[in-house]
Amino acid sequence: MRTIFLLCLSLLTVGIAYGQTDYENNGYNLKNYCEPGNCLYFKFNNDMNYPVGSTEVEWTMTNTEIAVKRAGSYLVTGDLAIIGKDMGAKLNFEVHFYDADDQLIFKKETGIFEFYSEPNRAEPIVFYGEFDSDIAEKVDFMDFIVISSEVLPYYELSSDCYGPCKDHQLNVSIKEFRKS
Length: 180
What we know:
Oligomer: single chain
Radius of gyration: 19 Å
Structural class: alpha+beta
Shape: globular
Number of strands: 9
């Protein structure tokens, strides 16, 4: 009886681990650090799948948030999962900031960076930056644009920042944002 119980428990564990279709992620992080009046907070409710509109998705980003402090700093976070076993990506994003008249008032490119996530896990992605407080006061809307994306085997990446390193980057960026 004990053997049957252990066999069933083992099969259940394997079934849960390999049958997982949702990505484990880090959730939303910024709202608690963005005081109304001093900070503008945006949360994207939908996932960002790339390429947009394609049935062959290369990566997906969930829980995307952007916060802008009126003093002149911004923080972009999300949870990124590369689709495919042992795959990574070279990515380049751009953040656009618009005023109330829908005029582009500031944009910042991340530059090409390398990213890898374990299978069925989304890793945190974070961009912190600063700009003039006069611009920050005018920000009414923000957008997040994909400039380039190249998916390739993870062993072709030169970055060695995975898992705990990405969590550390997120925590450090949130601390910097809070201090600004």
